[in-house]
Write a structure and sequence with these properties.
Blueprint: E1 3-5, E2 16-23, E3 28-30, E4 33-49, E5 54-67, E6 74-89, E7 101-102, E8 107-110, E9 114-116, H1 118-127, H2 157-160, H3 164-177
Parallel strand pairs: 6-8
Antiparallel strand pairs: 1-9, 2-4, 3-4, 4-5, 5-6, 7-8
This protein binds zinc ion (2 copies).
One zinc ion binds near residues 146 and 157.
Protein name: DUF177 domain-containing protein
Organism: anaerobic digester metagenome
Pfam families: YceD (PF02620)
Amino acid sequence: MLQMDVAGLKRAVGETSCYELQAALTPLEVRGATVSFCGPVKVSLVVSNTGEGLLARGQVAGNLKLTCDRCLELFQYAFNLPFEETYRPVPGGEAASSGSGKNDAESVTFSGDILDITPEVLNNIILALPMKALCREDCPGLCPHCGRNLKAGQCDCESEKIDPRLSVLKDFFSREKK
Ligand SMILES: [Zn+2]
Ligand SMILES: [Zn+2]
């Protein structure tokens, strides 16, 4: 969980604090597939108490294990994303029907002294995932005929199209007709 103690900050309007967070997160469910992290997710944030709430800005970095859409191999995908979110403290906490969650488009509410930014960080990561995951830009993918991974080298499919045995057979039939 990516959590920070904002006990002091949330009572000090105009104050700014820096946070370096790091956590091993559970795999994501994205478009029906499970995507796991390689190593921890690191977040560096500058959080300001604006009087309206806590404005958190910074970067989210880490690595995911993605499956290449062309060759179907797992590869490591590094991400480094900007993060910006406003958290509005809810007095008491119990007053709100749900403890935390989006109340409007601009801010997320929270209660207590510990701010858990994990849901918003995960959301950012999911939104930034590439539509097409490629292990490398020029991945040649798999051969449509034999399924061989062409990254490991050419298969024999090209030469099979002009298989010498077939031409011999053709010759045989043409000779038969004569
Ligand atoms: Zn690939
Ligand atoms: Zn092939």
